[in-house]
Specification:
The chain contains ten helices and no strands. It has about 200 residues and is mostly helical. It has one domain. α5 packs parallel to α9, α7 packs antiparallel against α8 and α8 runs antiparallel to α9. The radius of gyration is 16 Å and the shape is globular.
Length: about 200
C-alpha cells in the first residue's frame, strides 16, 4: 500500500464519489437505449459487456465494455491527478465495488472484468496492457471469456511486482479475489465442462 498522504475523511469522500460513479450500470442503460430490453432478463442476467454481447449487438457490447472500463479508469486518474496515489487506489477500489454492488440496482451488479481492466490501465498502464494481452490470448485459444478473465486476473499481482509497482500489489490482490468470488459459478461450470463458449458466429 502507498503511504497515506491525505486525511482519512478526504479519502472517504473520494471513495464515496468513486463508488457512485462505479455503480452506474452502463450495460443496463445501453441495452434499454438501443432497444435490447432489460439486460437482467437476458442470457445470464449479468449487467456486463459479455452478457450484452449475447444479445447479438456487438456495438452495444463494445460500448458497455468501454464505459465500464472507463468509469474505473476515470475515477482513479482524477483522484491521482488531484490527490495522489493513495487516493487513486481508493478510487479504483471503490469504483470497482460500485460496479460489483451498485446501489442503483439493489447491490446486484456485474463481475468486474472491464472495470478491473480500466483501473489497471489507470494505475499501472504496462500491467493493464499485459492483462489485456493475456486475456486476448487465453480467449483466442479457449473461447471462454470467463477463463480468460480468471487467468489474467490471477497473474496480475505477479505482473504488478514484475513491472515495479510494489505499492499496488495489495489492491490488485483484493480486486482479483473479488473477481474470483464473483466468478464462482463460472468456475464450477468450467470444472464440469458446462461453461458457455463464444462461437465465431456468436
Amino acid at each position: 500500500m502507498p503511504e497515506l498522504a491525505n486525511p482519512l475523511w478526504l479519502l472517504g469522500i473520494v471513495g464515496l464519489l468513486s463508488y457512485a460513479l462505479g455503480s452506474v450500470p452502463f450495460g443496463v442503460v445501453i441495452a434499454r437505449v438501443m432497444g435490447l430490453g432489460d439486460l437482467r432478463q437476458i442470457g445470464s442476467g449479468n449487467i456486463g459487456a459479455t452478457n450484452v454481447m449475447r444479445t447479438g449487438n456487438k456495438l452495444a457490447g463494445v460500448l458497455t465494455f468501454l464505459l465500464d472500463a472507463g468509469k474505473g479508469a476515470i475515477a482513479a486518474l482524477i483522484a491521482w491527478w488531484l490527490l495522489g496515489e493513495d487516493a487513486a487506489q481508493i478510487a479504483a477500489l471503490a469504483a470497482f465495488l460500485g460496479h460489483l454492488y451498485p446501489v442503483y440496482l439493489g447491490f446486484k451488479g456485474g463481475k468486474g472484468v472491464a472495470t478491473f481492466i480500466g483501473t489497471a490501465l489507470a494505475l499501472a498502464w504496462p500491467v493493464g496492457l499485459a492483462i489485456c494481452a493475456i486475456w486476448l490470448c487465453v480467449f483466442a485459444v479457449s473461447r471462454y471469456s470467463s477463463l480468460a478473465a480468471l487467468v489474467a486476473t490471477a497473474i496480475s499481482p505477479v505482473l504488478v511486482a514484475g513491472f515495479g509497482y510494489g505499492s499496488m500489489i495489495a489492491v490488485f490482490v483484493v480486486l482479483g479475489v473479488m473477481i474470483f468470488l464473483k466468478h464462482s459459478e463460472n468456475i464450477r461450470r468450467l470444472l464440469s465442462g458446462t461453461e458457455s463458449r463464444f462461437t465465431r458466429k456468436g
